[in-house]
Design a protein that fits this description.
five-stranded parallel β-sheet, about 45% helix, about 130 residues, alpha/beta
Length: about 130
């Protein structure tokens, strides 16, 4: 009986820990655009500096995923506020989301399809 209670306690503890970590949102360009249009958001472009210079979302901060100081730079953001993240097609931003979750970020919104999807929708990039 004691073992059953112990097992039940572990399961309840695990479930409560899981519910505290919010899953990242993966949203399409139109919805992403509406959410960031105020400009007062934490918007992160995880592409290379060269890609960023070729065109990025207005107000985005470039924090290249594969830079050695990526984690240090990401940790300068406010973990209690939403963070919007994107790349070119979605692969690197998905990697960035995993790192950010491991670092304690609670509310991460990822652009589905990256800048490829953004421009296909007819939304502008800034130089």
């Amino acid at each position: 009986m004691k073992t059953l209670y112990s097992l039940l306690f572990v399961l309840i503890s695990f479930a409560s820990c899981q519910s505290q970590n919010k899953s990242p949102e993966l949203i399409a360009s139109d919805a992403f655009s509406k959410r960031i249009e105020s400009g007062n958001v934490q918007l992160v472009d995880v592409r290379t500096p060269k890609e960023y210079k070729q065109g990025h979302l207005k107000g985005a901060k470039n924090v290249h995923l594969y830079d050695q100081d990526f984690t240090d730079r990401i940790n300068k953001l406010d973990k209690t506020k939403p963070v919007y993240v994107y790349c070119k097609a979605g692969g690197r931003s998905a990697e960035a989301v995993e790192i950010m979750q491991a670092q304690g970020f609670k509310n991460i919104i990822e652009l589905k399809g990256g800048t490829d999807s953004w421009t296909e929708t007819g939304l502008p990039l800034e130089q």
